[in-house]
Amino acid sequence: MLKKRIFDYHLYFKNRTKIMRKTTLSKFHIFHYKGIFLLFLFCLGCSMTFAKEVKINLLKETSRQQKTVTGTVVSEKDNLPLPGVTVLVAGTNNGVVTDFDGNYEIIINEDEALLEFSYVGFKTKTVPVNGQKVINVSLEEDLASLDEVVVVGYGTQRRQNVTGALSSIKAEDIITQGANTVEKSLQGRVAGVQVESAGGNPGSGVRILIRGTGSFGNNSPLYIVDGVQVDNINNLAPNDIASMDILKDASAAAIYGSRAANGVVLITTKSGKKGENRIDIIAYYGVQKIANKLDVLNASEWATVSNAAHDNAGLARLDIAATPASLGIGTDWQDEIYRVAPMQNYNISASGGGDNYTYSLSGGYLDQDGIVKETGYKRYNLRLKSSFTKGRLEVGETVLLSQEDWRNMAGGWGGQGGNPVGSAPKMIPVFDVYNEDAIGGYGGAYGPVVNVANPVAQLYLEIPKTEVKKAVINTYAQFTILDGLKYKLNAGYTNTSGYDYTYTYPYEVGSLFTNLDADLYEGRYETKYKLLEHTLSYDKNLDKHEIHALVGYTYQDTQYRGLSGSKSGMPSGVMVLDAGTTNIASGSNAWENSLISYFGRVIYSYDDRYTVTGIIRRDGSSRFGKGNKYGNFPSIAIGWNLSNEEFFNSEDSFIDLAKLRASYGVLGNQEFADYRFSPAINLNTNYVVGQDQHLWPGAIQMAFATPDIKWETSKTLNIGTDLSMFDRRLQITADYFVKKNSDILLQVPIPLSTGASGNSPYINAGEITNKGFESSLTYKNTIKDFNYEVTGTFSSVDNEVVQLGTGSQQIFGGQPTHHGASATVTQAGLPVGAFYLIKTDGLFNSAEEVQAYSRDGKLIQPNASPGDVKFVDYNNDGQIDENDRQFLGSPNPDFTYGLGGNAQWKNFDLSLYFQGTYGNKIYNGLRQDLEGMNLEYNYASSTLNAWTPENPNTSIPRAVINDPNQNARTSGRFLEDGSYLRLKTLQIGYSLPKDIIESIHVKKSRIYLSADNVFTVTDYSGYNPDIGRAGSVLDRGVDFGHIAYPLSKTYMLGIDISL
After folding, report:
1. Are residues 150 and 61 part of one domain?
2. What distances in angstroms separate CA 788 from CA 79, 90, 172, 849, 903, one per listed residue?
3. Does residue 237 share a domain with residue 182?
4. Cα–Cα distance between 922 and 978 in angstroms, integer?
5. 191 and 173, same structural domain?
6. Residue bearing the bigger pLDDT, 949 or 81
7. For residue 227, is it within any domain?
8. Are 736 and 773 in contact (CB under 8 A)?
9. Which of 132, 252, 585, 920 could covalently link to 978 via disulfide, CB atoms 3.0 to 4.6 Å apart?
10. Are residues 29 and 136 in the same domain?
11. Are strands 278-290 and 264-269 parallel, antiparallel or unpaired?
């Protein structure tokens, strides 16, 4: 009967498939992820229906032979109930899980005589049924299994034997963060890992820095997802993650060699568990609002300040500012572009397994509108992970499919004021948003002022979109040759295809911003990544000796190809390139690189007291010339578990674990552009020849060959300790490290006469050192019905440039818009991107003070007047210029920290997390615009407190147009303290009581309220002190204002159900 029902069901499913194929397959693109997503949900529903049919028929077939066994599972040590214990009928997939009170109920056949009870941290126990109806079980604590297993490169390891610097985050920590991207859940939770926001825009990633800046190129860590390298993890659904393990020192990361100089983030997605078939549904709905708006002038206030500025400059007042009192509030341009934005997320997963297989599949959908109007982000996720074992062979796979759709924020028009976020606070509030007589229908610029683009017009007249589809596929086969000896073949493939699109309607917003023709840009690209790995591992325990050995070979290849095109002149609303007639442009790009590697690792442990780990990896990269393609990267680490020594072993001791660790290793870095070792020739250059000025085709060298460039090298010394006390309730980890990065690639300046000055050759000439201390602490306890946990992290890194080529070479960066000089410098003896500015010394309060500020009878600031800024003549040459710049601070914090807590009382739970930084500086480029008088923008509200003879006790200089003293020049005046403390997350949840969930036949049902970015305590006057910067490390800590997307507060209501 069962076989017949299964057969009938499959025939029915096949018929349904044929029907769907006839009617819809022609409309589906093979990589149309929306269609795949719907098909996945359909298949999942069919699978659930099939499972239900099978279950019903199994029950019918066996109902006469079944009986019910109940009981309670407790801890042998303290007789407390154990929730979550797996109770499995031996040799079958028939199993249940104990409830919160340790109770279980399972239906078995009389001839199935053995029950297996298993739980993490306890020894598995097998009990014969022997006709019993009630079986109560006490489980013995397994001290060996209590030692957490963590993921390391190409395998797992007991934390007790880990000798490197490694931190872990589990699934429950990720979920309670409420983050919609995986990377954001790391912020403040991992010692030694600094996570900076790349903006609050929907779908934005973050900038992750592990143990300081070590290169002038790419400082991002290596991401490995289920064994496959990925360029970022922004596309992953947080609910799909089982754990994240961060490898921070050379010993822990050396197995990845040249890819691991910036640290490694190992991500393991969720797997099914044998005997535990379940369906999980997680969903939330939320709203977002801007966390902080800038305080700028309204129309009446702006006119008042503008008039004073013109009067002080001896210039005629603006017509639009003639009668300040009559202008009122005017247009609040920030209110015009910001909104309260909804977001929603849904994730459904099914997982389980039997004696020889496991499976886990899930689908997710995120829809997030941006707090800036006309911006948003959508993400679709599908995931399949399974394994199958037959005898000595195990095979498995992970398939991750995703599609991300962005509605981006418009860019700058005419180079004036950047995107709408930068334009809104600077837009003069007397202007109207709309003008029906103008092309495009928007108001704006006024002739006598240097104005910015209408930010509302930018949002609605420019439509930038991005679509990224990604498929990550990893398959493996593992064969056990002998007991302890295993061979594993791992093959991975990643395909990323992207599409960028920007359409701009015709517009006329005053004389400064005119675009009479519609414009269209389209770009497409595809990246293919291939991985093939062979590993041979050997594990052996012999009395007190434990050996783990691994050797392997890896081949990786990455290919990229992109093309783009743009045109203007198409009819308004016609968004097709062929409709354009003018400004025709096209371009393409392609590159490829390969990496082959040989590696080996040996871990030896004696009596759980002494552990030695040795690693060697040899990498060969196509990014280097002949003779430099290969690099060797070794490491050695030792660990001493003092708590297992006889002199430490005491029944009265409150210390459970006391371990010392030390390691030293060498890593390489080759994460920079391809073909730098090779010259480049432009064959499309025309030369002017002869008296007739004829054009002759020719060639020019665009880039010089640098065949001697080699690996950037990172050498790390790490000393650490792990402590566990009071029956493992208190756990402390602390590490001190010194990381020296040498042979860093730098560009060598060459004369303009070479014709290739924009592509200067590279040499290995830089050296950067990072020294630091990091620590993490966890304390957890139970008092009757109340469980709680407190966690804390602390990190401090001292960054210094040791060498920058020869002599006193300097690299400048962080140049604010409209204000000329750079804000940062990188040179020997200072941190990377140090703030290098002219120092200020208050304001001149009288003409006498201006006259007294002189050298050798010459005024140091000849254009100054009372109320102007006094700048420090640092080099004492009698004038103020760029030579007076000095080191005024670092963008790097003195330390970063995180402090969190979780608590459960009966059915209620609470989690909250604080994080922040201390001691870092931020250059506020947007305030430089809003307080400056050299450009007639709207002004910051602080200018109402500008210096006047009647108001001398202020830090705001006098209001004066054209700024003759250059009060708004790039200087220490705009350098602010970037320290902050933020309540990052707050979540309150309630789980339905046992009797209710049993009555509705579910395993868990929880509802929660969550808030993100609840409040921030800071002295920084910009949008957000956590400004981040996705570009050059030289710009870190510079708030350009017109680039960032403000941070949002988020409030969510969610449910978490398990069936």
Report:
1. no
2. 20, 35, 14, 62, 4
3. yes
4. 5
5. yes
6. 949
7. yes
8. yes
9. 920
10. yes
11. unpaired
> Per 3-state DSSP, what percentage of the chain is helix, strand, and coil (rounded to 5)?
15, 50, 35
Beta-ladder partners of 1056: 282, 1006
Name the DSSP class of 688: E
Spatial separation of the C-alpha atoms in residues 899 and 188, rounded to whole Å: 8
Backbone angles phi and psi of 965, in degrees to 5: -90, 0
Q: What is the 8-class DSSP label of residue 958?
A: P
Structure confidence by residue, pLDDT tens digits, 847-876:
999 999 999 989 999 999 999 999 999 999
- List Cα–Cα distances, 257 to 28, 619, 717, 767, in angstroms: 42, 7, 16, 19
Write out pLDDT tens, residues 691-741: 777 777 777 777 777 788 888 899 999 999 999 998 888 999 999 999 999
- Within-domain flag for 44: yes
pLDDT at 938: 92
Calculate mean pLDDT across residues 83-110. Answer: 81
Same domain? For 175 and 233 the reply is yes
CATH number at residue 183: 2.170.130.10
Is the residue at 254 inside a domain? yes
Instruction: Examine the domain organization and report whether 97 and 157 are in the same domain.
Output: no
Q: Are residues 132 and 187 in the same domain?
A: no
Tell me, what's the pLDDT at 199? 62
CATH number of the domain within which 66 lies:
2.60.40.1120
| Residue where a domain stops, chosen among 269, 298, 318 | 269
CB atoms within 10 A of CB 27: 8
| CB distance 400 to 469 below 8 Å | no
What's the predicted TM-score (pTM) here? 0.83
Same structural domain, 160 and 188: yes
Q: How confident is the model at residue 148 (pLDDT cuts 50, 70, 90)?
A: low
**pLDDT digit string (tens) for 572-595?**
788 899 888 898 999 999 999 999
3-class state of residue 595 by DSSP? strand
160-187: per-residue pLDDT in tens? 778 888 888 887 777 766 666 777 777 7
- Contact between 1009 and 1053 (Cβ < 8 Å): yes
Examine the pLDDT at 883 and tell me if it is beyond 80. yes
d(CA 66, CA 111): 9
**Domain membership of residue 8 as a residue range:** 2-145
Q: What is the DSSP string of 796-809?
A: EEEEEEEEESSSS-
CA distances from 979 to 101, 215, 971, 976 (A): 46, 25, 20, 9
Domain count, the chain: 2
